[in-house]
Design goal:
Layout lengths: L2 H27 L10 H26 L4 H19 L9 H21 L5 H8 L1
Helix pairs in contact: 1-2, 1-3, 2-3, 2-4, 3-4
Length: about 130
């Protein structure tokens, strides 16, 4: 058995979704002055909703990578969120706010609830992938 190939396979299957998701968040945070609506309320709700969705999935992917350790996954999400807000301070038209970290952690909390209480309703293939 070729252990090198097996290790490469494990790394790419487990870590790749998490790494790609982190890159996607970073790219999204690099867009200067992103606005989706002229209505400030709609813009606010959509931006916060995107934060929650991004960090929901970040928690789920990190939960898988860190061997189903929720506290470690939550800690990772927290520090990634802080790093993301720090990064936004250097993007024109953006500003890093600690309040957004709390919104991000809300998404992580929903991710935790999902893997804790709702995982059993997923189709077997998806559930097995997540728990692998």
């Amino acid at each position: 058995m070729d252990y090198g190939r097996r290790l490469d396979s494990i790394i790419s299957k487990k870590f790749l979704p998490l790494v790609l998701w982190c890159v996607l968040i970073f790219i999204g945070s690099s867009i200067p002055g992103a606005s989706v609506s002229k209505n400030p309320l709609v813009d606010f709700i959509l931006h916060k909703g995107v934060h929650i969705i991004e960090y929901f999935f970040l928690f789920v992917f990190s939960y898988r990578v860190f061997g189903k350790k929720a506290l470690l996954s939550f800690t990772f999400v927290f520090f990634y969120s802080l790093l993301d807000e720090f990064h936004q301070r250097f993007v024109p038209g953006r500003n890093g706010r600690i309040e957004d970290t709390f919104v991000d952690l809300t998404g992580a909390f929903f991710g935790f609830i999902f893997v804790w209480k709702l995982l059993h309703i997923l189709p077997n293939r998806l559930r097995n992938w997540l728990l692998a």
